[in-house]
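Researcher: Next sequence.
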Amino acid sequence: MERSWWWKAALYGVVTVLACLYLVPTVLPQDRQPAFIQKHFTKRIQKGLDLAGGLRLVYAVDIDKAVSAKVDQIANSLEDNIWKKTKDVAILREGRDLIVFKFTNPADIAKVDNDVLAEFRKELD
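Model: Next structure:
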């Protein structure tokens, strides 16, 4: 039992020494390295992006696309709410931020009351 412990300690020691020898070219400048290390251990550890300068991310919002997506979302929700009251309506998009309701029967305009538009009052003009 005691003999296997010494072999394990010796193995860990050899691995540790080899790891340190492989680190020497990375840590010490070329002119301060011993000749033995310059001859047998030439590879250096390559720095990753985090150590070599990092990464710069710039986020930008495409305002036109964001407004258009929001108007599409509001138009779809309005269409669902209005279709609960009447089916004779077409909701069209004109331009970037305009929603147009076209009723086949002009009397159906009265069915679009504040209850239908209440949740969109903050977004609608």
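Model: The CA atoms of residues 88 and 106 lie 10 Å apart. The helical segments are 2-27, 35-40, 49-52, 63-85, 114-117.
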